[in-house]
Amino acid sequence: RLIRGNRSKKLNASGYAAFDSLNYPPLGLVGDVIAIDRSAVRGSSKAGFKIQPELNTNVVMFDMFPGLQDNSELCAALLASQQIEGIVLKTYGAGNVPTKPVSFLEAIHDAVQAGKVVINVTQCVEGDVKQGLYDTSAVLQDMGVISGQDITPEAALCKLMNVLGDGDLSTTARKARMSRNLAGEQDYSMYTTVLDSETRRIDTRKGEEGRYRSAAVAIDGFSGGGRSIEKCLIRFVGASVSGAGKVLIKIFLNLAAKAQPSENLSAFAGQYVKSQEQFEQTFTFDIAQTARHELKAESTLTVYVEPCREGQGALSWRRLELTLFLAE
To answer: What does DSSP say about strands 268-275 and 200-203: parallel, antiparallel, or unpaired?
Structure first.
């Protein structure tokens, strides 16, 4: 079997067939003939040839294990080290970490705020991180931890050394590059566009004031066509429902300025009922099907909040963002 190097993992310490590529098919098979799977071979880059020879080895990688979260002093000392610039977290399952005690999460948060690049990969030998699927990974998403998707821990560590080794990159650019599929090491590139970074609160009990429309913004990473969109997530970060019980959220893409919001429009991406909660959450909605048809270079996300039959309330959030997962 011919397997892609940055997808490979050593699974057997002594066997001859020691390596495998569990998250990506073989590039070819060798028998009486050599059969190359052209659909699995990565195409040539359109960018100019460039060598980035420097590696920054001021990185650390460690596994989550039961009890680690109780040693907050150790975590804080490790993550706060001035020498550490990048961290690979090997988390449980689909990218989950313990949410208590809070001091453990604070150590990760402080590392991100200090400009360190933190990437979340799964401990499992097969499968991927679905950061934000559960509350136990949404906390990492909200902090600014990067989802490693289906990258192997070995590739994540090398990629981190390579990205940090490029002295021309800012912290923001480093994080953006870690989210991209650079050389076939992960299935998708992620592009996040912050649609609104101001705290908002809209109340369905106040008529027209219970409506919200974000400004038109250029969607990062989108070049048209729509066929390469795997997922398109709308995320209300730090969201909560208060006042009565439930609100009805309707989402549209590219709704014309004077158009009435109708579920019959192709721009209608879906409606979601959210109930009152005691704590802030992150509301995540996948609108990929609509995005493939409606997303343009300059798009307007329109959110309407309406009363539910069961009662009315207020919806608030701290940040509104859109994340594209593109096959590149």
So the answer is: unpaired
Question: 185: which residues sit within 8 A by CB, 6+ positions away?
Answer: 6, 7, 151, 152, 155, 159
Residue among 231, 246, 203 at smallest CA distance from 295: 231
List residues bridging with 15 in a β-sheet: none
Cis before 153 (ω within 30): no
Instruction: Tell me how far apart the alpha carbons of residues 60 and 44 are, in angstroms, rounded to a whole number.
Output: 32
Residue type, 140: L
Alpha carbon distance 152, 7 (integer Å): 7
Residue length, the chain? 328
pLDDT tens, 23-32? 999 999 999 9
Q: What's the rounded Cα separation, in Å, for the pair 320 and 283?
A: 10
pLDDT in tens, 123-158: 999 999 998 877 788 889 888 999 999 999 999 999
Beta-sheet pairing, 301-307 with 217-218: unpaired
